[in-house]
Design goal:
Layout lengths: L11 H12 L16 H16 L3 E4 L5 E5 L9 E5 L13 H17 L2 E2 L3 E5 L13 H6 L5 H5 L9 H7 L15 E7 L4 H5 L3 E7 L1 E10 L3 E2 L11 H17 L5 E11 L5 E2 L2 E10 L2 H20 L4 E10 L6 H14 L3 E6 L4 H5 L5 E6 L15 H19 L1 E2 L1
Parallel strand pairs: 3-5, 3-6, 6-15, 7-14
Antiparallel strand pairs: 1-2, 2-5, 4-16, 7-15, 8-12, 8-13, 9-11, 10-12
Helix pairs in contact: 1-3, 1-12, 3-12, 8-9, 10-12
Keywords: Hydrolase
Family: Belongs to the peptidase M20 family.
Protein name: Zn-dependent hydrolase
Length: 416
C-alpha cells in the first residue's frame, strides 16, 4: 500500500487549543487536572469530546462499560476499523496530557483527514477508554480489561471507591452506560499515542519513542509480623521490630532490580504500619512491592528471588514474613507490523526516534491480546507525570500526532 506523503501534517495550533480547552474541565489546584473517572467532571469532558466528534462528522457508539467509540466511515463497510485513542480520566493530582493527548491527538488526525479530503478503505475509530487510571476504582485499565476479556463486567461494576460507591452505579449516575456489549467490536489494528511518563526521550534528545514492548508487572503484598512494644523501655536486643523487616526488604527489592538491569525496576510504594504510634515499635507492617520488566523470565526470576530471600532476612531478626501476589500482567510485545508502521512514519517525517519499552501500563497493553497494537510516545519535561506539573511542548505533541496520523493512514489504506 502507498505510504502518506511526507508533507502531510496535522494542525499543531488546533491540537494545542483542544488540549487547553479540555484542561479547563476538572481543573486541579496547581495547574493540572482532577478529572477522575465517573465524576461529574469526567462526564463534562465526555460531552465536550462527543461534541467535537459530532462536528467532525463521526458517529458515536458507547458500550456498557462507558467506552466511547467515534467512527469515521471507510470506503469498505465490511473492513475492520483501525482504532486510535487513549483515555480522558486523570489522577486526583494529574496533568493535562496523560491520556488526553492520545484521545485529542486522534481527533486531530480525523480533522486533518477531513480538511484534506482523505479517504481510507478501513473505517477509523477514535476511542476513549473508561477508567484507565484506576485511581478511584481499582484496578487500572479496567474497561479495556473487560473489553479484552481480562475481567468480567460484573467484577468491574462491583468495584468500589473510598466512599463505597460502586463503578456500575456511578457510570449510570453520570449517564454514560451505553447499549453496546463490551468486546464485540472488530479491530483491524490499534495505535495509542501517549506521553512517555519517563525521562528517557528527553534525555536522549529524541522526538518519538517507538514502543516495542510494555512492561510486565507483579504486585506482591507483603506482611512482616513482629511484636508491639514500648520504644523507650524495650532493650534493643529483645525487640521484634516489623519496621526493621520492612527496611531490609526495601533494600532487597532495590538490590534485585539493580542486578537485573537494564529495563527492570522495583520499589515499595504502599505501606501500612501498625499501630503507627510514635512510641510503639511496629508489630506489623503491610506493604506492596511493585516489580516490572518487559522480559517474562526475568520478571518471574525477580519475584522468585524476593520470595526466597525475604523470609530469611526477616527470620534473622526475629520477625515473620508472608507474601502473596495481588496484581499481575505479563509483558506485552506489540505487533511487529504496527510497530514498523510507527517507525516508518517517524523516519518518513524526519523525526528523531528510538525504540523504547513502556514503563507504565496502558489500555493498549490489554488490547494487544485481542488485536494488532502499537504505541507512540513523545517526551515529557523531566519525565514527570501523575503530577499537576506534568508538561510537554506543542512541538512534541505535534510530532507524536503526525506520526500517529501517518501510521494510521498507512494501516487504514488511503484510497485514491
Amino acid at each position: 500500500m502507498a505510504a502518506p506523503g511526507e508533507n502531510l501534517r496535522i494542525d499543531p495550533a488546533r491540537l494545542w487549543d483542544s488540549l487547553m480547552e479540555m484542561a479547563k474541565i476538572g481543573p486541579g489546584v496547581a495547574g493540572g487536572n482532577n478529572r477522575q473517572t465517573l465524576t461529574d467532571a469526567d462526564s463534562e469532558g465526555r460531552h465536550l469530546f462527543k461534541k467535537w466528534c459530532d462536528a467532525a462528522g463521526m458517529t458515536m457508539g458507547v458500550d456498557t462499560m462507558g467506552n466511547m467509540f467515534a467512527t469515521r466511515a471507510g470506503e469498505d463497510p465490511d473492513a475492520a476499523p483501525v482504532y486510535m485513542g487513549s483515555h480522558l480520566d486523570t489522577q486526583p493530582t494529574g496533568g493535562k496530557y496523560d491520556g488526553v493527548l492520545g484521545v485529542l491527538g486522534a481527533l486531530e488526525c480525523v480533522r486533518t483527514m477531513n480538511d484534506l479530503g482523505i479517504r481510507t478503505k478501513h473505517p477509523i475509530v477514535v476511542v476513549n477508554w473508561t477508567n484507565e487510571e484506576g485511581t478511584r476504582f481499582a484496578p487500572a485499565m479496567l474497561a479495556s480489561g473487560v473489553f479484552a476479556g481480562k475481567h468480567t463486567q460484573d467484577f468491574a461494576y462491583d468495584r468500589e471507591d473510598h466512599d463505597g460507591k460502586k463503578f456500575g452505579d456511578e457510570l449510570k449516575r453520570i449517564g454514560w452506560v451505553g447499549d453496546e456489549p463490551v468486546g464485540d467490536r472488530k479491530i483491524h489494528a490499534l495505535f495509542e499515542l501517549h506521553i512517555e511518563q519517563g525521562p528517557i526521550l528527553e534525555a536522549e534528545g529524541k522526538d518519538i519513542g517507538v514502543v516495542t514492548h510494555g512492561q510486565g508487572l507483579r504486585w506482591i503484598e507483603c506482611t512482616v509480623t513482629g511484636k508491639e512494644s514500648h520504644t523507650g523501655s524495650t532493650p534493643m536486643h529483645m525487640r521484634k521490630n516489623a519496621g526493621r523487616g520492612l527496611a531490609l526488604v526495601t533494600e532487597l527489592v532495590h538490590e534485585i532490580a539493580m542486578k537485573n538491569q537494564p529495563n527492570a525496576v522495583g520499589a515499595i510504594g504502599h505501606i501500612d504500619v501498625y499501630p503507627n504510634s510514635r512510641n510503639i515499635i511496629p508489630g506489623r507492617v503491610v506493604f506492596t512491592v511493585d516489580m516490572r520488566t518487559h522480559i517474562l523470565p526475568k520478571l518471574n526470576a525477580m519475584v522468585d528471588e524476593l520470595m526466597a530471600r525475604a523470609p530469611k532476612l526477616c527470620a534473622d531478626i526475629g520477625v515473620g514474613f508472608e507474601a502473596r501476589i495481588v496484581g499481575q500482567f505479563d509483558p506485552p510485545a506489540f505487533d511487529e507490523g504496527c510497530v514498523a508502521a510507527v517507525r516508518n512514519a517517524a523516519e518518513r517525517l524526519g523525526y528523531s526516534h528510538m525504540d523504547i519499552v513502556s514503563g507504565a501500563g496502558h489500555d493498549a497493553c490489554w488490547i494487544n491480546d485481542v488485536a494488532p497494537t502499537a504505541m507512540i510516545m513523545c517526551p515529557c519535561v523531566d519525565g514527570l507525570s501523575h503530577n499537576e506539573a506534568e508538561e510537554i511542548t506543542p512541538e512534541w505533541a505535534a510530532a507524536g500526532t503526525d506520526v500517529l496520523l501517518h501510521a494510521v493512514l498507512e494501516t487504514a489504506e488511503v484510497v485514491g
